[in-house]
UniProtKB/TrEMBL annotation:
Name of this chain's protein: ABC transmembrane type-1 domain-containing protein
Gene3D superfamilies found in the cross-reference section: MetI-like (1.10.3720.10)
SUPFAM superfamilies: MetI-like
Pfam families documented for this protein: BPD_transp_1
InterPro entries: BP-dependent_transpt_permease, MetI-like, MetI-like_sf
Keywords from the named record: Cell membrane, Membrane, Transmembrane, Transmembrane helix, Transport
PANTHER family, per database record: D,D-DIPEPTIDE TRANSPORT SYSTEM PERMEASE PROTEIN DDPC-RELATED (PTHR43386:SF1), OLIGOPEPTIDE TRANSPORT SYSTEM PERMEASE PROTEIN APPC (PTHR43386)
Family from the record: Belongs to the binding-protein-dependent transport system permease family.
PROSITE patterns per the UniProt record, alphabetical: ABC_TM1
Length: 364
C-alpha cells in the first residue's frame, strides 16, 4: 500500500513538473515569500514600515535621484540586529533632501531640495554634530527606482514591505479555514443525520452573507489591526472547505477500506484522520490555493476601505487607496504598481491551483 501511495505521489509530481505555468507560478510564489520574510534586507529604506517621509520629493517619477543629507541623532536606539532584519530599523537620524552643500569655518551650509524650479531654503549647522569622519560620508545620492509616493516615501520599499501582509494573510487565513472547515466538514459528512443538518444550516447561513460584509462585521468586532484582519478573513473562508470535505467524506465512508477499518474495531477519530482524510486531500489542496488568492483580494479590499492594515503599516491595498486619484493627475503608476503586484500574486495562486488540480487528478 505504501509503494502504491508513493508511486501516486511521484506520478502527480511528474505531471506537475510538466506544467510550465504551474512551475513558474510556484517559483514566483517562492520568490515573493522570500521577499516577504526578508523585506527589510532588500528594501532601500529599511526603516520600520519603510516610513521615511520627505515631503519635498513627494510624487516623483520612477528613477528619480536626489542628494540625501543624514544628520546623526544624539538619541541612542537599542535594537538587536535580528529585530532590525525582520521588523525594520528604528531610525532616529534626520534625512534631508538637498540640492548642494558647502563647508566653511566648521559650518555646513546646505540648500534644501525644491522642485518645479524653485530655490530651496538655505540652512547652516555646525560640523560638531557629525562624528569625527568626513561630512561626505553623510551625503549620498539616493535613487528611487519606483519613484516616491505622496508623502515622499520610497515606493519600492513600501511595495517590498507591503508584500509581507498580502503574502502572510494567505497562510494565516487558509490555515484557519482548513482547521475549521476540515473539522466541520468531517463531522457533517461522517456522522450525517442531525449533526449534518445542523452543520449544513450553519454553512448555508454563513454562505448567504456577502463575504466582504461578513469580514467587515468581524473586523469591526475584533477591532482594526494587523492580526484582526487575518483572523476575520480566515473565519469567512472555512465554508467552502467544509462543503468540499463533507462531500468527499460522504463518498469515501462507503468505501471498502473504511468498512474494513470499522471491522477491525478502530474508533471514528482514527478512521477519519488516518484513513479517510489522507485520501480526500487532493480537492482540499486545490481549493486552498484558490483561497490564498481570495484572501489576498479580500485583504486588499479591506485596506482600500480603510479597515485593513492601519498606517503607517505598508499594504498594497492601502497604497492604491492613497493614490487612486493620481490616475487622472498624470501619475497613474502610484496606484498601478501595487495593483499589478496584487494581480500577479493572485494570478500565480490561481495558476498553481489549476496545475495542482490537473496533477492530482487520478483519472487524467
Amino acid at each position: 500500500m505504501s509503494n502504491v501511495s508513493n508511486s501516486l505521489k511521484q506520478l502527480a509530481l511528474q505531471k506537475f513538473k510538466k506544467d510550465f505555468w504551474g512551475v513558474f507560478s510556484f517559483g514566483f510564489i517562492l520568490f515573493v515569500g522570500v521577499v516577504s520574510v526578508f523585506a527589510y534586507a532588500f528594501a532601500p529604506d529599511n526603516s520600520q514600515y519603510a516610513n521615511q517621509m520627505h515631503l519635498a520629493i513627494h510624487s516623483k517619477k520612477p528613477g528619480f535621484k536626489v542628494k540625501m543629507l543624514t544628520i546623526p541623532s544624539q538619541i541612542k536606539t537599542n535594537q538587536s540586529s535580528f529585530n532590525a532584519l525582520f521588523f525594520g530599523e528604528k531610525k532616529s537620524d534626520t534625512e534631508i533632501p538637498i540640492s548642494n552643500y558647502t563647508i566653511n569655518n566648521q559650518l555646513l551650509t546646505y540648500v534644501e531640495y525644491a522642485s518645479d524650479g524653485l530655490k530651496g531654503v538655505s540652512k547652516t549647522i555646525s560640523l560638531s554634530v557629525f562624528p569625527n569622519t568626513s561630512v561626505d560620508n553623510y551625503v549620498k545620492e539616493q535613487s528611487f527606482l519606483f519613484g516616491t509616493d505622496k508623502y515622499g516615501r520610497d515606493l519600492l520599499s513600501r511595495i517590498l514591505v507591503g508584500a509581507r501582509i498580502s503574502f502572510f494573510i494567505g497562510f494565516v487565513a487558509v490555515f484557519i479555514s482548513l482547521v475549521i472547515g476540515v473539522f466541520m466538514g468531517s463531522l457533517a459528512g461522517y456522522f450525517g443525520g442531525k449533526v449534518d443538518a445542523v452543520i449544513m444550516w450553519v454553512i448555508n447561513v454563513t454562505w448567504s452573507i456577502p463575504t466582504l460584509l461578513l469580514v467587515i462585521a468581524i473586523t469591526l468586532t475584533l477591532g482594526k489591526g494587523f492580526w484582526q484582519v487575518f483572523i476575520a478573513v480566515g473565519l469567512t473562508m472555512w465554508v467552502e472547505v467544509a462543503r468540499v470535505v463533507r462531500g468527499q467524506i460522504i463518498s469515501a465512508k462507503e468505501m471498502q477500506y473504511v468498512t474494513a477499518a470499522r471491522a477491525l474495531g478502530f474508533n471514528n477519530f482514527r478512521i477519519i484522520t488516518k484513513h479517510i482524510l489522507p485520501n480526500i486531500m487532493a480537492p482540499v489542496i486545490v481549493i486552498s490555493a484558490a483561497n490564498f488568492a481570495a484572501a489576498i483580494l479580500i485583504e486588499s479590499g479591506l485596506s482600500f476601505l480603510g479597515i485593513g492594515a492601519q498606517p503607517p503599516m505598508a499594504s498594497w491595498g492601502a497604497m492604491i487607496k492613497d493614490h487612486y486619484n493620481y490616475i487622472i493627475l498624470g501619475k497613474p503608476y502610484l496606484a498601478l504598481i501595487p495593483g499589478l503586484c496584487i494581480m500577479s500574486l493572485v494570478m500565480a495562486f490561481m495558476l498553481i491551483g489549476n496545475a495542482l488540480r490537473d496533477a492530482l487528478d487520478v483519472k487524467g
